Each structure stands twice: as C-alpha cells, then as structure tokens.
Amino acid sequence: MAVFSRLICRRAASLRSFCTKSTDSDLHRASSALSSALPVDNSNGKGRNVQWVFLGCPGVGKGTYAARLSTLLGVPHIATGDLVRQELSSRGPLSPQLAEIVNQGQLISDEIIIDLLSKRLENALVKGETGFILDGFPRTVRQAEILEGVTDIDLVINLKLREEALIAKCLGRRICSECQGNYNVACIDIKAEDGNPRMYMPPLLPPPQCESKLITRADDTELVVKERLRVYNEMSRPVEDFYRSRGKLMEFDLPGGIPESWQKLLRALNLDDHEDTRTAAA
Ligand SMILES: Nc1ncnc2c1ncn2[C@@H]1O[C@H](COP(=O)(O)OP(=O)(O)O)[C@@H](O)[C@H]1O
C-alpha cells in the first residue's frame, strides 16, 4: 500500500514536466524514488546478479541481444523504450504529450523516464527478481550520473553498427500486434569497402500466423530515424565517454546477422549458451 501511494504521488508529480528539461528538485525526487526501487546492495557486486547496461544507436539491436542475455542469465531485460510505449498504449494523462515527443524523435524528460524505470524496478523487487539488463537507459549524462549515484553498474556494452545498416534496420522493423514478437523485413547487404568487410544481415521474418498482424512503430519513419540518430550523437554519445572514463565500457562491433553476432558477443562476455549450441547442432 505504501509503495502504491508513493507511486501515485510520483505519477502526479510527473505530470508537471514532459520535455527534456527537469528542475533540480524534480530530479532529486525522481532519483530518490529510483534509489528506493533498487535492492540494497552490500555485496559490492559479488554474489548478486548482473547489473548491465546496453548502449547503442537506434536500430543497432540492443533489444535483441539484451533479451537473449536476459534469458540466458535469468535477469529482467528492462527497456525504457518499451516502458514508454506501454505508457502510450495505456492512454493515460501523459500519453498525448509523450506521443508527440517520441514521434518527433526527441527524448522525454529525465524525470519522467526515471519515474517509469522506478516503477518497473519496484515491480522487479516485488517479484523477487534480482539484477537487470537495462536497454535504452541511461541516454543522457544526467541519467547516467543519477544511476551511478544509486547503484553499481558492472558493465556497459556499447553495440556498434555502420550507419547505413542502422537506418535500413529501423525501417525494416516490424512488431506483431498480437504476440508482440519483433521481426525485421530488411535484407542488408553492404559491399566490402574502404577496408570494411562485406556485411550481410538476412531478414528476420515472422512466422505465418503473425504475417497479417505486423505493425510498424510510428517513430520508425526515415525522417524520425535520422532525427533519433542526431539526438543520439548529441545527447547519448557523451554517455559512452562517461562510462569509458570509469573503465566500464565494452565496445562491441556487430559483425553481421544474429547467429554470428550472438556467438561473438558470448565469447566477448566469457559466456556459454548451451541451448543455442544444441539448437545450432540439431
Ligand atoms: N532513457 C530515455 N530518456 C529519454 N527518452 C527515452 C529514454 N528511453 C526511451 N525514450 C523515449 O522512447 C523512444 C523509444 O525508445 P527506444 O525504443 O529505446 O528507441 P531506439 O530504437 O531509438 O533505441 C525514444 O526515442 C525516446 O523518445
């Protein structure tokens, strides 16, 4: 009940600011809420589940690899973009303003995103989940500072892909409106050039039962994707430096499609996916 009333107070407060600017007191309140939504960690990172962050441009595949790692490691995959889309589809009082910001490719305020994240982490606490893989957060240096102030992030994986592939991947993205499965109809084949090897990424097609139910995200148009890339370079690139200077950043160049990239990522992380190896061998 106490958690619930705290949440209601926070939601009411979050109505105050929609744009990327928050006041210091709003942020202070949001960061306290984030802190109380996280488990107390006296173990200095030892003996608890992973607390990882995925960084990378729109379309790079953060969601795909974060979801796979989350299944492998048994920790929740928390994508702030998904939290924003859930808020939009709830058609609550925040929805119209949030839709406008998201559909223009801009970032929503640090305060609102931290509110949504705190709510999700509180759910995780209630469900007894430990650890997390964050995808899409932090996206500003301010968010990174707040997160660093309330918990210890073990590793930040910075996924990288050539820009022409990023745009094609965003434009090819499709979601099944029924099962929420993520697919991609783009077939990316970039010739070897300037010392870069050929890059081939086959489409990830939906099963027949999803084919007629595919939808495209409203912010996956060419104009908005280009704006999101610009916003990433301006607001989120500095987050890479933030973690690089703290020795937490692992750069990861995606070599191509999911099978080869996944195996390379597992090797880089010193992990083994027995399930995947069995499936590939079958
Ligand atoms: N950490 C964040 N800070 C501010 N806005 C966010 C954040 N995470 C998500 N959003 C909003 O949600 C939108 C969709 O996020 P996401 O699905 O992560 O997109 P992308 O495919 O660009 O990585 C973003 O363009 C932004 O408007």
TrEMBL record:
Swiss-Prot/TrEMBL keywords: Kinase, Nucleotide-binding, Transferase
Catalysed reaction, written as an equation: AMP + ATP = 2 ADP
NCBIfam families named among the record's database cross-references: adk
Species annotation: Erythranthe guttata
Name of the protein this chain belongs to: adenylate kinase
Cross-referenced InterPro entries: Adenyl_kin_sub, Adenylat/UMP-CMP_kin, Adenylat_kinase_CS, P-loop_NTPase
One cellular component (GO) term of this entry: mitochondrion
GO MF assignments: AMP kinase activity; ATP binding
Homology family: Belongs to the adenylate kinase family.
Keyword Zinc-finger: no
UniProt EC number: 2.7.4.3
HAMAP family named in the record: Adenylate_kinase_Adk
Lineage, uppermost ranks: Eukaryota, Viridiplantae, Streptophyta, Embryophyta, Tracheophyta
